[in-house]
Design brief:
alpha+beta, Jelly Rolls, eight-stranded antiparallel sheet, four-stranded antiparallel sheet, 2 helices, 12 strands, 31% strand
């Protein structure tokens, strides 16, 4: 019986000295903010419009980009577009109010979208999960036979994310039928202050648009006890164990 109780107390000591599992903090970003409906401007996302039927013609230099304008919330009635993302209230957006006009009136454009977000700290790791559909696809690639350069589709603070050009080959490389999810560790790219997610969408012909929902997850430092907490909890149990052994020795 004594050995059993001592073993149990030892286990309690180990438990008291073990850090709690941290809970993730979550930042959610999406297109179509503000609730103004089709034709209104997004209150969060801005964009810089590019060419009408190809990607940007040079490598993106974020220090030299012109000022951005608010993106427009679009009707998803374009033939072939899937209207929504599962589990999200995100809406289609574009660089002009007529980017998704039906019938098409020539207003579709490639665009670089900017989405600001802030982190209170840089506890690691920081993970970006990005789900989207786009007309036509993310990034630029000379493989499409139209673009003159290769540019990434996603950037954090101007730093390109690997494998974020999503041209699938054949025709215009359409990405507007089925949602695609991309996941990245962006720990080394973010700061404990203002940050920007850039989304580069190439339009190869006709209508242009983007719908996305993204999460940025970080550990929650408030869920991890301070070292002093581990020490105090462990010390209390150790003293309890010593008192138990002394009491039983005196009885014997």
């Amino acid at each position: 019986m004594k050995r059993s109780i001592l073993s149990m107390l030892g286990a309690v000591v180990l438990l008291a000295m073990t850090p709690a599992v941290s809970q993730a903090g979550l930042i959610t970003l999406q297109s179509g903010n503000g609730g103004g409906g089709v034709g209104s401007t997004d209150t969060v996302v801005t964009d810089i419009a590019g060419p009408a039927t190809t990607g940007f013609t040079t490598v993106l230099n974020f220090g030299a980009l012109p000022g951005a304008s608010p993106s427009y919330i679009l009707s998803p009635s374009v033939p072939g577009w899937t209207a929504t993302l599962p589990g999200s209230s995100a809406q289609w957006i574009g660089p002009t109010a007529n980017s998704a006009s039906n019938p098409y009136n020539g207003s579709g454009e490639t665009a670089l979208y900017a989405v600001p977000f802030s982190l209170p700290d840089t506890h690691t790791p920081v993970t970006l999960t990005f789900t989207y559909m786009a007309d036509n696809y993310l990034g630029e690639t000379t493989a499409d036979g139209k673009s003159a350069v290769n540019n990434a589709g996603l950037f954090i603070n101007g730093h390109a994310l690997a494998a974020s050009t999503t041209y699938t080959g054949g025709g215009d490389g359409n990405n507007f039928f089925v949602p695609t999810t991309l996941t990245y560790d962006i720990t080394s790219l973010v700061t404990a202050s203002a940050n920007t997610l850039y989304i580069n969408v190439t339009n190869n012909s006709g209508w242009a648009g983007l719908i996305f929902s993204a999460t940025i997850s970080t550990p929650d430092p408030s869920a991890v006890p301070e070292p002093s907490t581990f020490f105090m909890g462990g010390t209390a149990v150790v003293f309890g164990l010593i008192a138990y052994r002394r009491r039983n020795r005196n009885v014997a």
